[in-house]
Design goal:
Layout lengths: L2 H20 L2 H15 L8 H41 L2 H10 L1
Amino acid sequence: MRAEIENTVGEIEKSLELLRQRMNWETADHRLEEFNAMSEDPKLWDDPERAQKLMRERQALVDAMENYRSLAQDLQDNVDLIELGEMEDDAEVITEAENAI
């Protein structure tokens, strides 16, 4: 990979790592399990305001996790495409993947 795109990939990876830290990624799955367990409580909707807040927080976490995974996967897919393009000496594939990054 060219140095310029390697630097860009490195910057994106740093940003993704900061995002992981901000999201407390290590506990995200556990927090989602807790939200899911609380949302299954039949008494949850006895307090509609609390229930709506819980469901908003749960959905925000789900969305953040999905967005993070999507960004990370898109980056990896494009890095893989660049490497494949380099092995195959396919400038078009390399250019498309670099532009996507």
